[in-house]
Specification:
This protein has eight helices and seven strands, in the order αβαβαββαβααβααβ. By secondary structure, it is an alpha/beta fold.
Length: about 210
C-alpha cells in the first residue's frame, strides 16, 4: 500500500497482478481500483476465486489486449528465463503513464537448492535489476527490503545448510514478521537507507520512448 501511495495515482485505476499466488495482496489492490490477475497455477486460481468470484484471470501475456495503469509483480521476475522479451510484453500492456511495482530476491551468493526447487533462474543485485529494467522502464525508486531477516537466512544456508524458508503457520511467528515488516516500512518512509536485505523493491514508470 505504501509503495502504491508513492505513485500519487488516482483511485479506480486498472491494476494487473502477475503471479498473485494465493492472492494475499488483492484486498489491498482492490482499494485502488479494478484488479485482474495473471496466474498459471490452477490451484491458486481456484483459491482466489473462492473469495474473488468475478476476478478476471489471464494465463498468458499474449492474451491481454487491455492497458493497465499499474502492474504488480512480486517475486516473479526470477522465474523468467528471457527477461527482455517478458518485460517488453509487460511494457506493452501498460498505459502511457503506467507504473510497475516489482520485487525480486537478492544476493546470488544465497542461491540454493530452495531456489532451484522454486524454479528460480537467478537472484538479483541492484545493478542487475536496473540492467534488466532499463530498456522498457524508468526507475523511480529502488530499495532493499527484508533486511532484518537476512542474518537468519545466511545462517540457515551457510552454517546449517538449511534451504527451507517455510516458517509454518505459527501465529507468533506471523506476528513477529508483521512487526518486522512494519518497522522496515517505517524506516523507508523516513528515507532511512537500508544497505542490505533479502529482497529488492522497485517502482518504475513505463519508458515512453520504448519501441
Amino acid at each position: 500500500k505504501y509503495f502504491i501511495g508513492l505513485l500519487e495515482t488516482s483511485k479506480n485505476i486498472r491494476i494487473l497482478e502477475v503471479g498473485p499466488g494465493l492472492g494475499v495482496n488483492l484486498n489491498t489492490l482492490y482499494k485502488f481500483g479494478e484488479v485482474d490477475i495473471l496466474e498459471i497455477d490452477s490451484y491458486f486460481v481456484e483459491q482466489i476465486k473462492l473469495e474473488y468470484k468475478n476476478i478476471k484471470n489471464y494465463s498468458n501475456l499474449d492474451n491481454i489486449e487491455k492497458k493497465y495503469d499499474l502492474i504488480v509483480m512480486l517475486d516473479v521476475l526470477e522465474h523468467i528465463d528471457d527477461t527482455e522479451i517478458f518485460l517488453d510484453k509487460i511494457n506493452g500492456i501498460l498505459a502511457d503513464s503506467g507504473s510497475l511495482i516489482i520485487s525480486v530476491p537478492a544476493y546470488q551468493r544465497l542461491f540454493s537448492k530452495h531456489d532451484i526447487e522454486m524454479h528460480h533462474f537467478r537472484r538479483y543485485s541492484m545493478s542487475l535489476l536496473k540492467t534488466h529494467l532499463q530498456k522498457s522502464f524508468k526507475i523511480i525508486k529502488a530499495c532493499r527490503y527484508n533486511s532484518l531477516l537476512l542474518p537468519l537466512r545466511v545462517v540457515q544456508i551457510i552454517l546449517f545448510k538449511n534451504v527451507n524458508s517455510d516458517v509454518g503457520t505459527s501465529n507468533f511467528l506471523n506476528l513477529v514478521f508483521k512487526k518486522i515488516i512494519n518497522l522496515e516500512i517505517w524506516l523507508i518512509k523516513k528515507n532511512i537507507r537500508i544497505p542490505f536485505g533479502l529482497s529488492i523493491f522497485c517502482i518504475a514508470k513505463k519508458n515512453k520512448l520504448f519501441t
